[in-house]
Design brief:
Strand content: 15-25%
Shape: elongated
Order of helices and strands: HEEHHEEH
Number of strands: 4
Length: 145
């Protein structure tokens, strides 16, 4: 498994080949399409949530950030929001409830969800905004104290 037919190069194509043998082209297209649909769903949920601000959605990646309601009214302190979302990401990853990474878009620190696991379901995507908001409220209270 570590070496290809030449016994010297890595056989990385084996994973792709096995996947295609297992589910076929149609199966791969379906799984990729499902991931994209779930990312779009997450983006819509972030747009609808009063404590989240949706940023981007492309392919299977959605970005958003936690935005406390009192800062939504236009008095946003970008430095504080970046610090808050960075601390929130660390808390979220340590909690084990979900895993997202981060991105910086135009100087704004955002949470980045990349959906690529075929076990991810609509219920998982629907639960993420409230998990982020709940932990975001906690981190926000701690940082402001």
């Amino acid at each position: 498994m570590d070496y290809g037919p030449q016994n010297s190069r890595g056989f990385r194509a084996l994973k792709v080949w096995l996947g295609l043998q297992q589910v076929g082209r149609r199966g791969c297209v379906q799984m990729i399409g499902d991931d994209i649909a779930l990312a779009r769903r997450l983006h819509r949920r972030a747009e609808e949530h009063p404590e989240l601000e949706a940023f981007t959605q492309d392919l299977s990646i959605s970005t958003f950030r936690y935005l406390p309601p009192d800062l939504r009214a236009g008095g946003e302190d970008e430095d504080y929001l970046n610090q808050l979302n960075q601390a929130l990401l660390e808390r979220l990853q340590r909690s084990g409830e979900a895993f997202v990474s981060n991105a910086v878009i135009g100087g704004t620190y955002v949470l980045r969800a990349c959906i690529v696991n075929f076990h991810t379901e609509e219920a998982d995507v629907d639960a993420l905004p409230e998990i982020v908001a709940r932990l975001g409220r906690t981190v926000d209270a701690e940082l402001r104290a």
